Amino acid sequence: MKPSLKIYTLIFAMIVGFYSLMPTIVNADSTEKIQKIDQFVKEQKEISKIPGISVVIVEKGKTVYERGFGYADVNSKTPVTSDTLFELGSTSKAFTGLAILKLEKEGLLKRSDDVQKYLPWLKLKYNGEPQAITINQLLHHTSGIPSITISNIPKSNEGNALELTVKNLLDQPLNRQPGSSFEYATLNYDVLGLIIEKVSKQPFDMYIKQQILEPINMKDSFVGLHQVKSNEMASGYKIGFMREQNYTPPIYRGNVPAGYIISNTNDIAKWLKLQLGNSQIYSMDKRIIQESHIPDQSVEPFDKDTYYASGWGVMERDKKQYLFHAGENPTFTSYFIMQPDEQLGVAILSNMNSGFTTAIGQGVMNLWEGKTVNTIHSDNLQKLDKIVSLVCVIVVGFGMFLSILLLTTLSKIVKKQRIKVALNVKRTLVLFIHLISVAIIFALISKLPEILAGGSNWEFAKVWGPTSITVLFYSVIVSCVIYCLLGLVKIFTKKQNELKV
Fold first, then answer.
1. Choosing a second label site near 433 at 20 to 30 A (CA), which of 98, 115, 238, 412?
2. What 3-state DSSP class applies to 462?
3. Range of the domain at 278
């Protein structure tokens, strides 16, 4: 018996020893991943010019990584922390989608209902014919509302801003038959927000705060900038002349349901855990969470193997399902991605409008899953900024050249080297051609965003585009005015020694 006892004792000791080493192995693996993520985010931050980034990873109900990079405010050198507040952009849509499902569970609406049951005045047409639009079609972006309607959201901080925003759709024809195909339009979720107001008999912001955020303990999150009472709010930035530029955009309170939840990574960790089904302490029905993840497969996917659910994209990749969404506001971006089978979620918040935020989020997820990551990314706004900055230099240079010519000509008039002359047929014709050319140039300038971006306008371009666009716009206007004045001065004067024209 003694040899057997020794053998069993040895085996038991080996088993205990093996399991005692496991945390060290896991921690070593996690440490390596964390180091790679730290390096990756730092590199991407430098390339993207994003001032501040906040990252959180949750796994199996625990927050396994949470870190801030850079500055919440560049001027004051305030560092980003897990308490730093960011605008979420369109990752806010999942909160609105969840509220709709909650109201349905309470018997206050049905997703199959016609929108006009709640907003009888919202009569929209396709090819001149009135259309019935369901709540489901709004949730899944299959209502036919055009994506370009984002450019006409009214600037307002008034309590009725949401209704004003939705009423803007009354003069807007639908792009497609409702339910026929996918077209992402942020205003779908503003209409849902107004329906939530009508059904709950509460302002949208109060309903979301009290019925969604507070029950899941997101105590430091807000619904719209008007709710924010905290000094933790990050400053927002845009790219401009190849560096970050501080910018304060107009307030679009009517777009809160689609893009203006304000939060930090502390609270977003709770949100991800709720979505992944491992937050037992929160008083939210798991079934409606799961229902919000069910994609609409009645239409073609909007990307390869990717369909839209209720505020979430649902993607099949490497035989795994991922839930994701990007958020973009004029000076903030975010990206959430989750792998439900592994109960794994990643969120990235940043205080600049940049496509790099999405790339960083995807990269962090890949690194945590042990995959290789692509470190070479590009951002359309950054590319646009480089082009616009170069054009700005050319336009400003040309404007300065015209200014010198104008000042030289005016100097000659003062010195009597050029004298006033009456119009004749030839000069009248030149004047006419000159004024027509100036009018055409101004017309082209005013219509340029519409020509290039199909229905957009300069106001939208100035708010959403690089700050260099605004400089270019005014530089072109000033150069055109100088060109017009120079032409007029030349036409109405002549050199003292010039032969009579």
1. 412
2. helix
3. 29-378
Instruction: Please identify which residue in the block is written with the tokens 């109405």.
Output: 492
CA 318 to chain centre: 27
Instruction: Give the DSSP letter of residue 92.
Output: G
Backbone dihedral region for residue 32 (phi beyond 0: left; psi -120 to 50: alpha; all else: beta): alpha
Query: Which contacts of 384-387 are long-range, i.e. CB under 8 A and separated by 24 or more positions?
Result: 384/465, 384/466, 384/469, 385/239, 385/240, 385/241, 385/242, 385/466, 385/468, 386/242
Residue 501's CB is within 10 A of a number of other CB atoms, namely 10
In this prediction the pTM is: 0.90
* pLDDT per residue as tens digits for the range 247-282: 999 999 999 999 999 999 999 999 999 999 976 655
Q: Is 62 exposed, middle or buried (0-12, 13-18, 19+ CB in 10 A)?
A: exposed
DSSP 8-state assignment for residue 213 = I
End position of a domain, from candidates 324, 356, 378: 378
Query: Tens digits of per-residue pLDDT, 175-198?
Result: 999 999 999 999 999 999 999 999
Whole-angstrom distance, CA of residue 206 vs CA of residue 216: 15
Specify if 74 maps to a domain.
Answer: yes
**Assigned domain for 1 exists:** no
Q: Which amino acid is at 501?
A: V
Cβ pair 186, 328 in contact under 8 A? no
The answer to whether 417 and 497 have CB atoms below 8 angstroms apart is: no
Inside any domain, residue 11: no
Burial class (CB within 10 angstroms; exposed 0-12, middle 13-18, buried 19+) of 153: buried
Residue 61, pLDDT above cutoff 70: yes
> Which H/E stretch holds residue 348?
strand 344-350
Q: Which residues are CB-contacts of 122 (< 8 A; sequence separation ≥ 6)?
A: 115, 116, 166, 169, 170, 191
What is the per-residue burial (b if ≥16 Cβ within 10 Å, else e) of 245-276?
A: bbbebebbbbbbbbbbbbbbbbbbbbbbbbbb
Q: Which ranges in 182-227 belong to alpha helices (H)?
A: 187-200, 204-208
- DSSP, residue by residue, 363-379: HHHHHHTT---------
Regarding whether 451 and 360 lie in a shared domain, the answer is no
Count of structural domains within the chain: 2
